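New to this. Comment on this protein:
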Amino acid sequence: MEKKIRYFDIILRILFAALFTYTAAMKLIDFPVYRIKMRRQHFFEPLKEWLVWGVPIAELLVAIALVLPYLVASPKLARVSLMGNLVLIGGFTLYAGLAASGIFGYTPCACGGLLEGMGWWEHFLFNLVLTSIAAIGVWLHRIKKDAALFTSVCG
């Protein structure tokens, strides 16, 4: 059972690190378009510019934090990175759900890359599955000793 949990943890971390790195890169590569779409989102005006930079930075930080525990054997970072991952994808899921419900009226998707082509309901369901996977990852770390899951690949 411990091996299955460890493999699930590795797959979860790779999945989310790749997803967040990809979406952040797509936003930064096409930054002028991403910025326009973010400025059209339904947030408080002073918050919009912070989110333009904050979202891709948060995605990259979470992606790095998800990988680091296997490089430095840090159970505390492992737990914190999984919680950060759950909060980030949970926030995206909540926003996609609100956008899908039509509460905001028309809202352009500012995700970047292939995800941008999804409709809001598809986006919501996709994110809901990812949020469930992230929640399972957090739960597994709570029931299993973190220290047993991590050994550094660096020695």
